[in-house]
């Protein structure tokens, strides 16, 4: 590793420099929304609903108003008059900001208190008297879709959100009829909370003199939020400034627009004072958007020899009370149709039915780029099930069915064109690294002794980098992304982007891209994101899209600058442009490397001595519309030992071979993979947001929602293959979510592999010890 912090020198693609931003993070000098304090700032706190479904009969705020320090109390009725009681969601639905007649989930914001400080606001919140009439709640999405179910939404006639399908049903049914073997399995991909470190919040500051509204907020997509805010409030877009300062983890949970953002803005405009709203941890867990919650029925059809011929999947998805998923608008179920995975499958058909329930809204990505996790989990579980049913080795079965590397670009049965891949080489590498066949032998030996050991494989394919603008948009805004690079006369650079990192390290990796192409030292490049007043328009950071889009834009803009720089260098060296060679930050005439001009000399000349027919300045802006998505992939192998006494599963080894094309910064990529594997581990073994049949949440704090700490987390063994993206300017693919997408199936496959001979075909996540113990007990195996 190149050890200095902050890193210095020219460091392009593939350099393991430490993260530039870590200087401020490690010193505790990051600036998060809650660190910002403005003069005369007021505080907003919500009164929340104790019921999942209830009519609001009366709200009495008199007592609350009398609490010292209370400035104002805002209800849905008041917002309604301003046309703000409901706002549009990203998926063309609408959502309540504050309710006017009924509440639709437990923990929903009902009344907003604005006070001089947070304590007064909390005290007042406790004094608000709300009379509810409980209505029958509906917490189960399957029941919600039945004809006589209570209706969640006051503005809808049923609980159906959408019905969506992909693939050729007839052709698929036909291959199923003709198949030698069909395996099927039900899976529940549980509801998850992203559990980022920093809960959501905002500070709104309306300046009555200029008429400008500034909002600091925890958003992953500041520009889109600005546009939506402008359309909803009619405030001109250039009089709204959204700033996403440092963000303590996003993971998709901060793409959603929360009521607090809207009410803080409304209150600031009304009161002429800055208003701060910050969720507490348990408010955050109970009311912000969740992820997953897919009830899946999957079927796989195959020939006797293991050749897979068809895939059929039916899903009921639970969207809570509002359809607020952060999907591109043409994809109601996200990119779930990537579910044919790494396999060359002739025919596939998928059907997803979305239901409203009395729970908070959701369908956020949570490190899964729009439902790819659910897709990958389903196919990887089914392939393992098929292997077991056929008595074939799951690795061999996969090798038999992979899309062959010479078939790329490959068009899947569900219509995606995969850019590049080499799945067999990744799996073979993982098998070799872990010693696959020896482990299988060990497993046989253990079996004889009555010991339970399992090996689980997952060979996932991701689809990231939205996206080609003709296919992908958010509320009609095309999904490109942007870079603006300016080189000052002294050769120092400021580069601004339409994305917004939440911990990913863009300040380092974007600088490396510029450093790679222009030969400028990384310490001379400042990267800025997240301020809509200064950054070029962009769609934001989620769905592992920053490298495929804004990263590509950085490369293209750098190359535009290089083209101009060559012209200036030719002028300075009194040579023809075609004779100029550029290498490691230096321009020289072919054959004369000793007589050169540096990029810094050229930058100065761009302002002091540009060639006569060339404009002054050295800068470029690029809005990059990728020609296709990128398709990173990987092969994961997990070894578990199951304790018969307790049902405890121990992950003994986990080998992850990832392929994200060309890598910008290997340490950052490894950090991304380790973090995402840990989240996949949490998903497989620990995390679930649960409700009872009345829509009451179980817990709703870190006491019940268990996330892995260093104690539980296994040691990850990482490796790579490199299959560049043929269309990305640097050959890179996204990677941020890969391991959360790919790993859950590896863990579950390993546990089921250990228990298969006992007759256990599946255990739903999270695989808590008691679930395993129950299986062992049923099979007479618990010791
Ligand atoms: N890279 C490199 N190379 C390659 C790729 C990549 O180097 N080839 C790197 C970059 O640059 C950055 C990272 O790595 O830095 C990442 O990337 P990407 O893949 O492109 O991604 P982005 O866009 O940037 O990001 C996003 C992601 C997501 S999506 C998520 S969830 C998560 C991840 O990211 N989140 C987070 N990771 C992370 N980390 C942290 N720290 N934090 C956070 O929050 Mo979603 O949709 O939202 O669900």
Structural class: alpha+beta
CATH-wise, what's the superfamily of the largest domain?
Aldehyde oxidase/xanthine dehydrogenase, molybdopterin binding domain
The helix count comes to 19
- What are the segments in which pLDDT stays under 50 over at least 5 consecutive residues? none
The CATH topology of the largest domain is given as Aldehyde Oxidoreductase, domain 4
Bound molecules: ligand PCD
For the termini, the CA-CA separation is 48 Å
Rg, nearest Å: 27 Å
Based on the coordinates given, report the CATH architecture of the largest domain: 2-Layer Sandwich
Strands of the biggest beta sheet: in what spatial order?
Answer: 3-7-1-14-11-12-13
Sheet with the most strands? 7 strands, mixed
Our count of domains comes out at: 3
Which percent range fits the helix content? 25-40%
The number of distinct β-strands equals 33
Shape: globular
Averaged pLDDT, please? 97
Q: Any idea of the CATH class of the largest domain? A: Alpha Beta
Strand content: 15-25%
